[in-house]
């Protein structure tokens, strides 16, 4: 492949996604020439108890909509439904809304019919775009234990009756890869990619908030979208790259565009 098709050639990029969920982004970055280093800073686990989710599953016929804001929400929710022998696939009700194409694809692969995908691929957008449709509707939100309040607050403000359930927990790993974390600390990588506010917060817990924020002046920090970027900036970090498209290819292309624009901006030396 020609050099211009490898805009990330020679770049060392750290992917912080959970183990087992990094392959799409890693592959997209490697296809553009990057050397990818894996530093999982998140792990996903079942909720501490299933009481609320089981109650929602038992009352499934009472909901008009289920809104999924992540692929993990889909997986854990449906795994529990299968354990309880409750079928949701291709039912006429409730309708299904998804935060973005990746979440919708996961739901469809599980046999669900997805009725709506947010145009801007954020939970806030999903609530805003469906506000009129959901007025007076009963909405189920299967979520992480660390999900924000923006979406349920927006839905309630629009007149929806919202039931939130924790379908999975977002937690930090017990330890980080010592080699990769040392490279980050020594600024011996070019970029670090964060796919959620929790990813940044977990790494800050290992490094210290001040140290991680200071590193953002030496390493390009990339956020998968505006929600993650805002959380990082609120924590004092500089976000050089904010992907408009949160897909693996979209994030990889945003990083490539960042380095391509920097290369084009370098002044050329005048001939002697």
Describe this structure as you would to a colleague.
The protein is of the alpha/beta class and 272 residues long. It folds into 2 domains: 3-42 and 173-265, 3-Layer(aba) Sandwich (Rossmann fold); 45-171, 3-Layer(aba) Sandwich (Rossmann fold), CATH 3.40.50.10090. It is 41% helix and 18% strand. The protein has 12 helices and 11 strands. The strands form 2 sheets. A 6-stranded mixed beta sheet has the order 3-8-7-4-5-6. It has a 5-stranded parallel beta sheet with strand order 2-1-9-10-11. Helix 3 (71-83) packs parallel to helix 4 (101-109) and helix 9 (197-207) runs parallel beside helix 11 (226-234). The chain is elongated and about 55 Å long. It starts with 11 loop residues before the first strand and ends in a 7-residue tail after the last helix. The relative contact order is 0.15. The model has no long low-confidence stretch (mean pLDDT 90).
List the helices and strands and how they pair.
Layout: E1 12-15, H1 23-31, E2 35-38, E3 43-45, H2 51-58, E4 65-68, H3 71-83, E5 95-98, H4 101-109, E6 116-117, H5 123-129, H6 131-134, E7 138-144, H7 150-157, E8 161-171, H8 178-185, E9 191-194, H9 197-207, H10 209-215, E10 220-223, H11 226-234, E11 241-242, H12 248-265
Parallel strand pairs: 1-2, 1-9, 4-5, 4-7, 5-6, 7-8, 9-10, 10-11
Antiparallel strand pairs: 3-8
């Amino acid at each position: 492949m020609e050099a211009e098709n490898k805009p990330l050639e020679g770049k060392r990029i750290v992917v912080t996604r959970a183990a087992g969920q990094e392959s799409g982004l890693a592959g997209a970055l490697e296809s553009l020439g990057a050397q990818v280093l894996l530093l999982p800073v998140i792990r996903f686990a079942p909720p501490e108890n299933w009481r609320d989710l089981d109650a929602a599953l038992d009352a499934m016929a009472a909901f008009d909509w289920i809104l999924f804001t992540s692929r993990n929400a889909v997986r854990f929710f449906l795994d529990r439904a299968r354990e309880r022998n409750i079928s949701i696939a291709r039912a006429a009700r409730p309708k299904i809304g998804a935060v973005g194409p990746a979440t919708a694809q996961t739901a469809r692969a599980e046999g669900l019919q997805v009725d709506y995908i947010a145009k801007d691929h954020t939970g806030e957008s999903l609530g805003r775009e469906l506000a009129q449709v959901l007025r007076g509707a009963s909405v189920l939100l299967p979520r992480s234990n660390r999900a924000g309040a923006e979406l349920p607050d927006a839905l309630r403000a629009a007149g929806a009756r919202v039931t939130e359930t924790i379908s999975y927990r977002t937690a930090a790993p017990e330890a980080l890869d010592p080699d990769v974390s040392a490279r980050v600390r020594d600024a011996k990588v070019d970029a670090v990619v964060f796919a959620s506010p929790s990813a940044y917060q977990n790494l800050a817990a290992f490094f210290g908030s001040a140290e991680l924020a200071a590193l953002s002046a030496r390493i390009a920090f990339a956020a998968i979208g505006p929600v993650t970027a805002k959380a990082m900036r609120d924590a004092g970090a500089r976000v050089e790259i904010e992907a408009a498209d949160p897909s693996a290819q979209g994030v990889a292309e945003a990083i490539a565009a960042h380095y391509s624009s920097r290369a084009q901006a370098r002044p050329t030396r005048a001939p002697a």
